[in-house]
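Q: What does the assembly look like in three dimensions?
Context provided by user:
Components: two
Sequences:
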Amino acid sequence: MSVVAVYSLKGGVGKTSTVVNLAYLAARDGYRTLLWDLDPQGAASFYYRIKPRVKGGARRLLKGRVDQAIRGTDFDNLHLLPADFSYRTLDQALDAARKPTRRVRKLLKPLTKAYDYLFLDCPDSLSTLLDSVFFAADVLLLPVVPTTLSLRTLDQVRAYLHDRARRPPLLLPFFCMADRRKRLHRDVLAAYADGKDGFLTTAIPFASAVERMGLRRAPLPSYDRRSRAARAFETLWTEVQAALPREA
Amino acid sequence: MPKRGPTDIPQGACSFGVPPGADLDAVLAALRGRFRLRAGRAVRRTRRYFDSFDGLLYRAGDVLFEETTGRRTLLRWERLDDQTLRFSLPQQAAPRFARDLPPGACRDALAAVLKHRALLPVAEVRSRARVFRLLDDEEKTTARLHLETDATATDPGSAREATLDARLRVTPVRGYDEARQALCRFLRDDLALPPHRRHPLLAALAALGRTPDEDAARIDVDLDPALRADEAVRRMLLVLLETMERNEPGLRANLDTEFLHDFRIAVRRTRALLGQLKQVFPAPVRQRFRPDFAWLGRATGPPRDLDVYLLRLDAYEQALTPPVRAALAPLRAYLPRRKAREHARLVEVLEAPRYRTLRRDWRAFLETPSPEVPPSPEAGRPLLAVASERIWWVYRKVIRQGEAVRGSAQPEAESLHRLRITCKKLRYLLEFFQRLYRPAAVRPLIRALKRLQDILGDFQDFEVHQQYLLDFACQMQAEAPPPAETFLAMGRLAAFLEQRQEAARKQAVRQFARFAAPKIQQRYAELFADAEAVRPDA
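A: Here is the predicted structure of the complete assembly.
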């Protein structure tokens, strides 16, 4: 099982739409896929029409009853582990647990045989939970808006991982919400076009189609696969697969 | 009214037959009246089912198929009983062997079931499929209803076709089992559609008039201990002939290594029966058939040796350093070429008049009823007596030869080889006749013998594989000389094989000591030494 975490220190950069669409594409390709919505806001669960509620909440989850909360989505091969509002207290619960950093990895262990891909939608803070997610993930996918400020937060994440992570995941930043009408966006995209700093070459465009996903409550490629944004997610998925460390 | 508990609908997928002539539109209208259904597009769907020649997946309770819906093809692996998904992969070309899949859990699991066997098409089902999603208040899918119509099953061997009845199949969505159960109950109770749990593959095979395990390897023959020996042996030989004939097409087409393996074993067993129980048939019969089967056995030797070499090469290479391994690449490339040549030679043998005549005459002889008056005193004795006597005789020969091996400080390859051959004969006899005795008594004997045979087999393989290396080197030199590094690396490989052979030699002596343990000796004596005293179920 490959574990792909999608994370952003900054909110509203298209993190959830990325994880929702990539998980859909993995399942559509035939892979047994699980999306774990770790964000207490429950946006990914909302997109997949699943109630953001886990019986027993964060504490029960940490005790290892992960698989009971898993739900099938509208799509074949794609399951979701919903968010729960109590996830906002996951940090305290983790801090109280033994070996908090290894906790998420341990929770995932029983799932490794059942799924080929696990996508994690992470909350946007740096915390004990994130340390644990970083420890469990093979790849950390980072959506970055092509602006100077966003690039700065990327550096912060990099520095954080460098200092803290004992088993750092492969860092894969990519540009998101890229708006070609904006000069700054164009300049930043041009500067990173050759994969500088490990950036993937796909940029997800700023598109109303992506914003409207909230109305359809479905992943974009499932109903509009020809749109520019859907095609961008498609190439992003190809790039992520190619970058993933191969299973032995 | 019976209580409708959660248990009256079994787990997993459930199918409902739609009788021919039933009004599908009325069924759908009734469903819509009760449930919130959203219809997907009707699509053409093709499922191609695969299994090994001997039905290994089926026997493991699994179903593997390639499913094409529109332009997309997936490889899916389900459980046979409740159709739960085990694996699913994007698919470009149908895999022939487990090793053709991308590395990962699916490949490992498939390799564990198939070993060296190839996947062959079992059946193909083309249909028009439409998926209806059962929705809740959030418009979330809670169960799926698959309507399959205009389905045709095709037998890939005979290209025979059969039309399948329309069917509705309910599949669960994880975490929403109540919806699935409600849907199943409605179809069963309110619409009175007959439910069945049979996997679509089994339904397709049934329509084609086939059963899934018709090709399964069959070696056991029901034996009556009181049967006349010549008649019993004749029946067993007929089963072996059928095994040969069943494996012949796959062997000719070189589909995988196991066709040759099974064919060769059937030939060997035939020779063992003809040789070990020679008194039950008149001399002219033995003289007619024994040389021909020996000839056939010899013809299957070299291609099988090459197969074993190729199968073992990976393991051998693991013991060498990476540079030596790299230098062996020309050998790796040479072996399949050589295998192809040996295979072509074997096919020539199978096409030779001598083989065709052998097959025809052998079958004619085996199918002729035994003469009423036994042609020899041995032929007329009960099978149990003849079998026990022979097993006891061969067993004592194993002990005799084994003691000679144990007595020498450095047993020679020749004497270990003789011991191996005698062990093989004993093994065949035990396997042929185990049904005559208490299975629980014979099984431990076979296990102990097998352990000894395994180590003797290893010893022999290391010996033969060293000899082959010189032969390969000469041939490679003559065809397209590889770099000197390759020959040096082959020398290293030979040295490694010699080392392993030495280890096997010592192990063989130790293993024989275990085989000759008093407890096992006693068991042989009890079962076989006094045939008259031993009766089945005694």
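Follow-up: Residues 80 and 199 of chain B are 6 Å apart (CA to CA).
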